[in-house]
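Study this chain:
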Amino acid sequence: MLLNRATPQGAAERVRAVIFDWAGTTVDFGSLAPLRTLERAFAEAGVAITESEARRDMGIAKRDHIAALLRMPRIGAAWREKYGYAPAEKDQDTLYERFIPLQIACLKDYSQVIRGVPEITQDLRARGIKIGSTTGYTRSMLDVLMAQAEANGYQPDCSLSPEDVGAGRPHPFMIYAAAVKMQVYPLAAIVKVGDTEADIYEGLNAGAWSVGVAASGNGVGLSEEKFLALRQEERASRVRKARQDLQAAGAHYVVETLAELNAVLDDVDARLSGKTIL
């Protein structure tokens, strides 16, 4: 469980807030909504993208994600073959404008709260820990998710999108804004939890603790039904690879599911108070 012994700086004595990601962490097991929408937006533009290409930069602001895809050499070459010129900013804008309504429509089918999330949030509140959230989605997309999640038992104390603060991950600004809204300091009293490398960088750049979630997110990339249907060896292999990627990004901890989060918080509290570290 413990991966990175570098401790965020600050005079915190215990964890005071946990900031969750959305797709792949608290809703949408497998982080399928952004994947399907990116695939469709590019397909409608006549340039197909692969799942691995779509997942490479998952977690960053969606306009930035589209720009990153257009910068990939293979996709750029396919675009030139289709249109006779390299993708330009106007193409990024056109794809993004098409992406927004497609994503909002898709969210209705991929907004199910992940098993165990309502229970872990109850545990956090019992510990006196505030709950925030950040995302790569736009505010309009986030509003859809929030309404659906609340109906299914999950309601953070505050939720931030990149446009709320001027920039998305890996910048730490959403975490800063969440800390202000929740009145939590220092940043070492905050734990950021997410399923992508971008989530890990966001937490590290903010001076918070970063926790990766392996099984339900972008690294494995399967619905819960398909994940559970895998042979045990295949399931373990996929989770192990997701763990390794999150560890390589610098995560302080990586958990398979949020059911392990209480143990992580106990260990962080012990580290902050100077007690024995597991």
Remarks:
- The chain has a mean pLDDT of 93.
